[in-house]
Amino acid sequence: MSDGASASALETDIDGLWNRYETGELDAASAGEDERATLEAFLDALEAGDVRAAERVGGEWAANEWVKRGILLNFGLRETAAREYGDVTYNDVLPLADGRAFGERGTRNTPDGTVVRRGARVGADCILMSPSFVNVGAHVGDGTLVDSCDTVGSCAQIGRNVKLGANTLIGGVLEPVEDAPVVIEDGVSLGAGCRVTSGFVVRENSVVGENTLLTPRIPVYDLVEEEVLYGELPPERRAFTRFVESSIGEHDLFDGGAYKPAVVATHLEDRTLEATEREEVLRE
Q1: Cα angle: 131, vertex 149, 100; to 5 degrees
Q2: What's the pTM value of the predicted model, to 2 decimals?
Q3: What residues contact residue 51 under an 8 Å CB cut-off, 6+ apart?
Q4: What are the two backbone dihedrals, phi and then psi, of residue 70, each rounded to the nearest 5 degrees?
Q5: Using alpha carbons only, how large is the chain's radius of gyration in Å?
Q6: More confident: 199 or 87
Q7: How far apart are CA 109 and CA 116, in angstroms?
Q8: Distance CA 184, CA 206 (A)
Q9: I need a labelling partner for 54 at 20 to 30 A (CA). Which of 43, 67, 94, 173 fits?
Q10: What is the distance between the alpha carbons of residues 12 and 5, in angstroms, rounded to a whole number?
Q11: CB atoms within 10 A of CB 118
Q12: Would you place residue 218 in the very low, low, confident or very high pLDDT band (cuts 50, 70, 90)?
């Protein structure tokens, strides 16, 4: 599948299966060869990058609801089966991706624990270090490094030439289908131990310090535009975690005050802002 017409036809087929599944007309026991062929074609399209769980429209990321429904159908219309992974037997509705395709496009995946589930897109010239896990519906762009102990969640969208530091968690958003997943745009570098969850968007060419938590519930203090953001890190920022005073510190239980996490974003080239200056900016 390589053109818009075939993608449109696949969308129509998935929508038809979803309607039958939602009304109870279709389930795993009643799914036949035609239904399974549609599911396989859908997974092939995901792995080829012909369809994606989210796309950028007018500068903003939006979920492709029919794609997320197609992923859910692959769980609802398949039976769990025993499968082999090296010397290990595991039980799942989906097999693993065919790793032979990775080498054909210059991608390396090291042994002993690099797991890519069927229906995940891994681009050209990527490096997947073990142990790491890439879930169904995820899209990993060309030239990206997925380091040891990393998890790329279902439907997460990772751009080109991204560096995911060791022990990084990229959360997935599969349900509800209308919610956009986590997005890491091109050229981003995430330090070791970062966590990005709940549909947060990290814009292109940003550098995020180690152990930073990026989630829509934690404010981003953008010192470049002097504004507070939620759910997004602007492009070309250097970001790190700080702690700001919390109103619950006024409670008698908190002797000496209480603090909550925040993210501070400076210009990418700003490496000289001292800690005391950052504190002054936050307090202002």
Answers
A1: 35
A2: 0.91
A3: 1, 7, 10, 42, 45, 64, 67, 70
A4: -60, -40
A5: 21
A6: 199
A7: 9
A8: 9
A9: 94
A10: 11
A11: 18
A12: very high
Arithmetic mean of pLDDT, 207-227: 97
Q: Which long-range contacts (CB under 8 A, 24 or more apart) does 243-247 make?
A: 244/282
The whole-number average pLDDT for the span 151-179 is 96
- Whole-angstrom distance, CA of residue 53 vs CA of residue 163: 21
Q: Which residues make Cβ contacts (< 8 Å) with residue 92, sequence separation at least 6?
A: 80, 81, 83
Residue in this structure with the two tokens 């995901």, named with its chain if needed: 46
pLDDT one-digit tens code per residue, 6-65: 889 999 999 999 999 999 999 999 999 999 999 999 999 999 999 999 999 988 999 999
List all residues 6 or more positions away from 266 whose beta carbon is below 8 Å from its beta carbon: 223, 224, 237, 238, 239, 273
